Amino acid sequence: MRKTLNGFGLGLRTEHYRDFVESPWHVDWLEIISENYLVAGGKPLYYLDRIRRDYPMVMHGVSLSIGSCDALDSAYLRQLRALVDRVEPAWVSDHLCWTGTGSLNLHDLLPLPYTEATLRQLEPRVAQVQEALGQPLLLENVSSYVRYRADEMSEWEFIRELVRRTGCELLLDVNNVYVSSVNHHFNPHTFIDAMPLTAVRQIHLAGHEEHGSYLIDTHDQPICEAVFDLYLYTVKRLGSIPTMIERDDNIPPLAELIAELDCVRALAQRIQTEQAA
After folding, report:
1. How many domains does the chain have?
2. Pick from 182, 196, 275, 194: nearest CA to 235
3. How far does the signal peptide extend, from start to end residue (predicted)?
4. Does some domain include residue 116?
5. pLDDT in tens, 165-222
6. Which residues, listed in sequence order, are joined to residue 169 by a DSSP beta bridge?
7. From CA 251, how far away is CA 25, in angstroms rounded?
8. Are strands 98-101 and 92-95 parallel, antiparallel or unpaired?
């Protein structure tokens, strides 16, 4: 039976390990970066085991490289499955991207060409991962800064078709939608409207940097007003989806992140109350 998870969460970061151990916080669940815990022992696993006693968790990966033309890393998949068995997460996610080829890892989340050939390439790879994990895989839309000349469809059309063909589910990063919409000059509401309602299991919110005519997805800033507005539109469109804040750099005290999360919670609950009235 699949686990259910609701409410509002944060990404678990090493800077906040002791905070979560020493006192309770107004957080419904935590997201861990899978690669941080693919180790045999030590402090990461100690804190992971200790904190998961009190908080439900989900797992989020950064190195699956589902969109690569190279074979999937079977050793990595075995490690990932062992971590799933240890953590018992509500779900497992990674990014709809590629990260390198051969022995070259670019340590970046690179966008895919949105073509029929890419969809055919992805179908058996998603199936392989889902079989290895014993559950559906959530895939996250990435922010991007370039397009491919080969593109045959929009990103949102590509995602819809991938869900239909593979049965994968979605981690909808609202900040990434906004960043890409500015960089590529499309209406972010069009992207949100196209998302298959029953496939979106989780939402990410984060901050970014402005560089004049383009944005860089940095996860080192508070959520800006435009992303908050797009999140409100998303809640109206998709309803109550488990939502979390990602912060990967310039990490503030936990209390500051909790305050930001409380703002997200209040906004979502206000929309739900208005819709129920």
Report:
1. 1
2. 275
3. none
4. yes
5. 999 999 999 999 999 999 999 999 999 999 998 999 999 999 999 998 999 999 999 9
6. 138
7. 17
8. unpaired
Please report where in the chains the tokens 């990014």 appear, as a residue: 95
Structural domain for 177, as ranges:
8-276
Strands 200-205, 243-245: pairing kind: parallel
- Token readout for 220 is 């080192």
Distance CA 198, CA 176 (A): 20
DSSP 8-state secondary structure symbol assigned to residue 102: T
User: Would 3 be classed as within a structural domain?
Assistant: no
DSSP state of 66: T
CATH number for the domain spanning 143: value is 3.20.20.150
Rounded to whole angstroms, how far apart are CA atoms 67 and 100? 9
Distances in whole angstroms, Cα of residue 40 to Cα of each of 17, 37, 79, 93, 262: 19, 8, 10, 22, 36
pLDDT tens readout for residues 9-45: 999 999 999 999 999 999 999 999 999 999 988 999 9
Strands 200-205 and 209-211: unpaired
